[in-house]
Design brief:
The protein is an all-beta fold. It has no helices and 11 strands. Strands 2, 4, 5, 6, 9, 10 and 11 form a 7-stranded mixed β-sheet that branches.
Length: about 110
Amino acid sequence: QVRLVESGGGLVQPGGSLRLSCECSGFDIQDYYMNWNRQFPNDERELITSLFIRHNVKNIAGSVEGRFTTEADVVKNTVYLQMNSLRPSDTAVYYCNRGNYWGQGTRVTVSS
């Protein structure tokens, strides 16, 4: 059974950092594009990172390039989103997905 579970969200001040986790089960994360997305309060959704470990592919959206990155621990079968220099405009619910499989999301609020 394919399962993705995000964690690590919370309230952070502008300029702060957070590391989100996406624990996966039922498949090997090395064999698929593993993506991080976010949904803003206005319901707009944005794909921000893609990672395909087997093919050594990593894509970062221009809106977060230089501040966010993604990495994985293949032993733990977990994908991470490292977010630095957070801004209030990064406030959103963050989701990881593999194709049509999505986690439940984790909320990130950037506010002073």
